[in-house]
Design brief:
By secondary structure, the protein is mostly beta strands. Helix content is 4%, strand content 40%.
Amino acid sequence: MHLHGPHTQIRFSRTSLSLAIAVSLSATGLANADVQVTEEEVTTGTETEEFNLRVTRVVGGIEHPWAVAWLPDERMLVTARPGQLYLVDGDEVTEVGNLPKIDAEEDQRTAPEGGNQGGLLDVAVHPDHENNGWIYFTYSSPGDDDSVMGDEEYGTGTALARARLSDDGSELTDLETLYAQVPRTAPGRHYGSRIVFPGDGSVMFSIGDRGIRYPSQDLTDPGGSIIRLHEDGGAFEGNPFIGVEPGNLRPEIFSYGHRNNQGLALHPQTGALWAIDHGPSGGGEQLYIAEPGSNHGWPQVSFGREYATDEFIGIGEEAPGVKPPVHVWDDTLAPSGLAFYTGEEFAAWQGNLFVGALYAERLHRLVLDGNEIAHEEVLLENELGRIRDVRQGPDGLLYVLTDESDGGLYRIEPET
């Protein structure tokens, strides 16, 4: 086993009722009676370039859902940002208990409807789940304050954990925290975070710059990086900064210069790691291919502007040693969720790349020509709301999650 330790112990030295409530809810798994399977048809005959679409709300009543994943028996796991994990089995929804401590305190004003950008984030099922039973997930982990941003008495960081489901699906067992970001910082934003399994015995996930910016170019800080670990924890031996002078570079970093990456996907043919990143004000959202040791520029290289002054950020849109993006959007998408389509149900869309958009409230379909975007189509604009995640289900259909206080899981299928 590689370097995984006990869960963080938190000392509450201030009266923080909202944090206590968030931690209590995530730890005890209190039920949310409003979450239920609905199978409600919401749109029909939605035209696209290739198909007419039918959209069905499969599960409703989820407070800010963040990610969905399927178990081998086609049961679904859905995370909700406030700290809930749901198991959907046919018509039944079970809230899974025994999660680690999760910070979902409502202290980040820029999140929609208030609330923190952190909480329970991505969930991924290990490719060999049938034999090992592992489920991986990321979350904002509270702990001792290492912040340089103020007088906060605790900080947070992106963490990766794994666990198994109990036989009845009611709780997590064998819970292990594999990684907790340090230093922990005070801003409640830019946690990332998506998870992929490259198939080489490693697990990869993204961490945002935590809203501080400079960690993205600091290889002694994991902020603004894609992290690669062994599947049971510890830096992966093939990582690019192991043994590199001056010797204190973080061995877990795979690539850096990211702002807030909320979409990772492995190309089904090449295995390349595609990623999508939030830009700052005024667009500058980037799609790129991350490689070992690649620098993606943020904040020195940027395609966006300062929120307060509208001035350009950084030294320009390119620089020596910075890997250029595959594509940049000039308008604001707030991209979250990235998936290659490989199924049969949408045969004309095989090999296409799908991107969810939060601010723009739509789904983007990208047609690739090698490593370039040959064509782009906007789908479901302003029809479902803020799209947080997009996935291909085991049935070959597309699924999206909407980031709303009454969010849901939606199935997209061709109308026949």
